[in-house]
Amino acid sequence: MRVPTGRYERRVAKAEAVELLHVDQLSETKLGAITENVSPRGARIITDSICAPGKRVLLSAPDENVKSLARVVYCHPVENRKFAVGLQLVMRVKEWQTPH
């Protein structure tokens, strides 16, 4: 019997350069990040910036032609002053699931 993980769709390991824009802040500074894994409804990214759970961000992956609002689910410190951030995407993104 499978134990539920809280995810509806399988994640795929994928390292993709992405940009984050904090929607709830006045700053228009885009932050760089790298995905670790993605699914049509979510992503785990690694970034230099703390992202508070519950906050909204605009996630864009220019190379994939992906842009979606997302909600920060978690933010955990990892090595070298970086943070692992779990994102729940507002829109379903199929493009990340297709290989190049």
Give a description of the structure.
0% of the residues lie in helices and 50% in strands. It is an all-beta fold. A six-stranded antiparallel β-barrel has the order 2-3-4-7-6-5. A hairpin with a 4-residue loop joins strand 5 (56-61) and strand 6. The protein is globular, with a radius of gyration of 13 Å. It starts with 11 loop residues before the first strand and ends in an 11-residue tail after the last strand. The model has no long low-confidence stretch (mean pLDDT 86).
Number of strands: 7
Overall body shape: globular
The major sheet is characterized as: 6 strands, antiparallel, barrel
What is the radius of gyration?
Answer: 13 Å
CATH class: Mainly Beta
- The CATH homologous superfamily is named predicted glycosyltransferase like domains
Spatial gap, N to C terminus: 34 Å
Q: Number of helical segments?
A: 0
Q: What number of domains?
A: 1
Question: pLDDT below 50 for ≥5 consecutive residues: which ranges?
Answer: none
Order of helices and strands: EEEEEEE
Determine the fraction of residues in helical runs and give it as a percent range. Answer: under 10%
Q: Can you tag this structure with a few keywords?
A:
100 residues, 6-stranded antiparallel barrel, Thrombin, subunit H, mainly beta, globular
Structural topology:
Blueprint: E1 12-13, E2 17-22, E3 31-39, E4 42-47, E5 56-61, E6 66-78, E7 82-89
Antiparallel strand pairs: 1-3, 2-3, 2-5, 3-4, 4-7, 5-6, 6-7
